[in-house]
Amino acid sequence: MKYSENTYAKALNALAALRATLPEKEWPTVDFVAAAICEKADRDSQPDHIGDVTAMVAQPDNGPLTLAELRGMDDPVWCACDTFDGKGGFWCLCSAGIITPPSLMSFYAAERPDWVFYRRKREPEGA
């Protein structure tokens, strides 16, 4: 989904205001989210045919990510789990093995050995 430049600007302004209220040790998390928003804005500013070409490029396997793979990533990851809304999981940010879920309560991936992360959202069985 593409958003307007104004939407990205509002999101970044809100993050800047949030950052100003947080202790300095929390700033890297906010900065990480801000960087992800900027990258999304850059992708959205590209012509639509770029997305078509990207979809044609072979994607890596979507098997469960290992701790070593998570430590080498700086990307969003899908956390597969049962959720109250039936979505089967949620997106998290992963930076060098540090996972930031929607709650923004970051943790090292090794601290949650039962959590399973993937590069992409899992397709429903039989899809």
Low-pLDDT residue intervals, each spanning 5 or more residues:
none
Category by helix and strand content: alpha+beta
Radius of gyration: 16 Å
**Main beta sheet strand tally, sense and closure:** 5 strands, antiparallel
Count of beta strands? 5
Shape: globular
Q: Into which percent range does the helicity of residues fall?
A: 25-40%
| Distinct helical segment count | 4
Strand order of the largest sheet: 4-3-2-1-5
Cα-to-Cα separation, first versus last residue: 22 Å
- What share of the residues does DSSP label as strand, in percent? 15-25%
Round the mean pLDDT to the nearest integer and report it: 80
Would you list the SSEs in sequence order as H and E?
HHHHEEEEE
Q: Helix and strand layout, with pairings?
A:
Blueprint: H1 5-21, H2 27-44, H3 48-56, H4 67-71, E1 74-80, E2 89-95, E3 98-100, E4 107-108, E5 116-118
Antiparallel strand pairs: 1-2, 1-5, 2-3, 3-4
